Amino acid sequence: MCLSVEASKSVNYVMLPAPSSFFQHLPQKKSNRIINFKSTRLHTNSFLDSFSLTFILHFAAVNSTEKSMDLSDVSGIQLATSPPPRTAVDYNSSFEESPAKRVKFSHELTKSFDEKLSQTVTLICRNNEEVFVERTLLSHYSTYFRVLFSNEFRDSQASSHRIRLITASDFHLLITIPRAFEQGIKPNINVQKAVELLEPAAYLQINIALEHISDIICANLSHENIIKIFRLALLYHTPLALRVWRAMIRQFQTMFATNVYLTLKENELIGLLTDKHLNLKSEDERTVVVNWIKHNSPLQSDRIVQFAQRNFARRPQPDSTKYEVIRNRQPIGAVVSFGGWASRGVAQKIEVFNTRCERWQTCNFNYDVPNIRRAYNGIELVDDKLVVFGGFNGIQHFQTTTVFDLETKKWKSGANMHDKRCYVTGTKAKDSHGRHLIYACGGMNGVSRLKTAEVYDPQTDRWTEIANMAHMRSDGAVVSIDNKVIAIGGFDGRNIHLGGECYDSIVDKWYPLASNMRTRRTGCTAVPIMDHVCMVLGGFNGVKRLDTAELYDMREGVWHSVSVMHTARSNFSACTMDYSVYVAGGFDGQSTTKDSERLDLRARKWQALPDLAEAKSALRMISLTDHPFLDELFHISDDDDVVTRW
């Protein structure tokens, strides 16, 4: 709905009939409760710009009756992707007038609008509680009241309005939320109250409150309440419904494990199964459909039976290599391999591991990549920025930093490190302000091994030197646990280290760990397992390549042995994802290897995985979970053969 006055020959009025069913002018009546809002008058200039008033009404047709809602009665998943329905017919008219008349009319309109907003209005809430509040305040925070007060509806000039769906105290809370944000305060509301306020916030179109309520609800989603919340959001706020839908896609594997998905409606389940981002293992797709059909009556499952028969028969590759699936899907997470040293020098391929079809795929990284192809470098993902630093390309030892922004998909050169660093190890940790910083420790500058260390701030693009380590370490391992940086193992040019040291950023000092590892290690890799626990894997002890791994618990300061790997290796890479440790590449004592494997932390067992596309050592891997950039890595098509309109 829009009313505009512009400096042109034609002035268009787009108006809606007065929503008399929503605004009821009631006779004066004594109430049990009165709330008076005293607020600073707002300037009407904030609503007027170049003699133009533009007001948008999103959900004028929200049901305002007081009857309770049964979430089980909500149907029609189509609303999740459809625009809000139009609430009335637009009436258009245009006429010609002189510029002088237009200016006079504009001044009259501004004066009339000022007079309207200077008045106080009485809101009669649930249980006949009265709230006295200035029209200026209501117009500032609520699109609903702004449209009402700025137009010539039947109830626009009424001194009182009935808002039946909200109590006076809840209305006070809704108005308090945007006022608190203006003062830099984030209101603390529990999820139950947020759900109660969703309907009135959407009805009155208090957008700041609506966004805050949506954030609270999304932060408290679980597999137990997500379906009910989704259906509730469909009624009142489509953007929230879309957020909950995406969360349902991410949590569907848990919904399957707990049988919560059996309460989905047929069109909801079909909608989920057609989504390429659905987080569901390939081996479980047939079970999902069969169990849902058994749980529901034949009349409720006729469409999904036809849907399953048609799409399971297609057996799309590669996801259907082992199991029947509806369609190829994009994994919820991925392990990405960069660089490394192959038989012909620096590896050229970027590979990504597809957890659905259990295989490595070559990634067509179609972006201009400056100097990322290197080995023995450091790489970290911080705040949607992939930071590559140091390394070696067979000729040059790098001290440069290259940053790839996953959002803009552009590369840029960052600040140089203070030292050239090959065989460098790095990790990320939070500082006292909650910012992620990247630590680069040790390495080799082409002449000597290093004990120096430095820290990189991606926000300021600056490397800062920190205290030196107690020992020179190249080809060691660095990991962050408890927001503390731990350097382990490595080689100083003569000796392979058995111990490690921990960096305290507050006092800028390195301290030795409470105990040494069970085995000397260089060319090893470390990954965080829990808040207080890290794991060191593989390496070289001076005699042979190692297949062993050890756990270190910061709380007790003791190293513990864990299951051995299938392949002994050094100068490889490892990362964690979904309660598993992924290991790939390296040198096995005879040659570089393409072997990869995975440790299930819950089962404490290693599982052999398909080989990399090429054998390489000194590669670097990162894990990426539930991120939009996965679309760029996998390039899963929309698969038009699958029913996508539901």
From TrEMBL:
Pathway: Protein modification; protein ubiquitination. Keywords: Kelch repeat, Repeat, Ubl conjugation pathway. SUPFAM superfamilies: Kelch motif, POZ domain. Residues 119-187 form the BTB domain. InterPro entries: BACK (IPR011705), BTB-kelch_protein (IPR017096), BTB/POZ_dom (IPR000210), Kelch-typ_b-propeller (IPR015915), Kelch_1 (IPR006652), SKP1/BTB/POZ_sf (IPR011333). It comes from the Eukaryota. It holds the Pfam family Kelch_1. PROSITE patterns: BTB. This is BTB domain-containing protein.
